[in-house]
Amino acid sequence: MEFIWILFAFICGLAVKLVNLPPLIGFLAAGFILNFMQVQPSSILEHLSNLGITLMLFCIGLKLHVKDLLKREVWASTIGHMGAWTILIIGVASLLGIVGLHAFEILSLRTAALIGFALSFSSTVCIVKLLEEAGEMKTRHGQLALGILVMQDIVAVVFLVLATGKVPSIWAVLLFALIPLRPVLGKLLNKSGHGEMLPLTGLFFALGGYELFYLVGVKGDLGALIMGILLASHTKASELNKSLMNFKDLFLIGFFLSIGFSALPTWSMLGLSLILTVLLVVKFLLFFYFFNSLRLRGRTSFLGALALSNYSEFGLIVVALSVQAGWISNDWLVILALAVSFSFVITSVFYRKAHSYFRRYKDTIRRYENAVPLPEDCFEQPKNMEVLVVGLGRVGRGAFESLTGMIGNVVAGMDADQFRIKQMQNDQHNVFFGDGEDVDLWEHLDLTNVKLILLALPSADDSVNVVKQLRSGGFRGQVAAIARYHDERDYMLKAGIDNVFNFYTEAGTGFAEESLSLIR
Question: Where's the Cation/H+ exchanger transmembrane domain (predicted)?
């Protein structure tokens, strides 16, 4: 039976990938097809799904910092959006009930508010998947979206306590002891090395955090998230995250399949779910309004709002609890399952072209910006910059340090990870914060004296987007980039990049040449 899930997930995932759509759309379709074929899911699928979500939350924690959650743009926009959205859904439900739609007509004020609350959440699974694929987890809008998702998760914990009546155990206060235990956790991570023990250590931390919180009556997923946050500042946090990435992605396939198994709809349910799907436009506009009101730049507001404009799997939990309590009919569980699925598809399709949309409508979007941006959103211009390295991960930082050693401080580095930039600035490196795909950034930077730009970015599409912006802005210097695969190299050269370095093959060549110098 398990092979049937794998077979359909593979066929549907590959089919949508061939038409340049995210595979998760295919996984959702596979779940509904298997359900239609009356294939029964087993407990194994549920376990895989839960494990994937737990690992995903742990990995989110590895990339988060507590002070990000305390920023006004995170907590104020979360609370403001939830309240405004819930009131909006109550109004829409009342209006549709007056029109005569039976599903809305039978809703009371309380049940309409519950549905609005359920739909106010955004999908952690969908958003993290999109941000990871785009290499935008540590960008300004990526961190904003993640912060809001964590705040929503905290609200979810409070709701579950109130809805189920399950008050955490008195022993839950002992969870605060994890904070002084951070050095011990760090030493365990150091001892794990770099081989097979590293992902096993990650699984131990993630599942251990889940079980620890669950034992004292707190949502287990929150435990996995907190455990990741405790390790976020560790030097091996990034390496640990990469070691778990393939496991997490594989297990999350079970989650997308399980949504399709939730129920089979009728035509009326399908129509109601499409009405809710159309309301995603309003959800986007509300997020965009709150972000701009809190002085975020138009680009950050636009990309953050677009990423968050979907419905969450947690909404299904809220409605399931309401069905068990007899507040809502079971039909609403099916309606929301469809709406969640449709929202995943829409976000996946539109977000992939988010940067193109911004470039096209940037003048309109900028009209809604606050005249005084937040201090961290202001651009800085490095002095005497002749060479710029964009992306300061392992490869980019190595290139930056080598070039600095060769030609001095005329080399500048830029990265979208604010914490990485702060650490390097503390070490007196000539670096600054910036997102390579940010149109506003390139328009503000003076590149008159820059002769060479190196793009050490995570994907070929990112590098191509940057070089298009540079060329359209009139940059006539040389642009070099890195690639992982041979087909990427050809694609990037055709896009106008002057030199593409395949670091898998050419790093081996460099290693061989330097080694030969030892015997000559």
Answer: 6-347
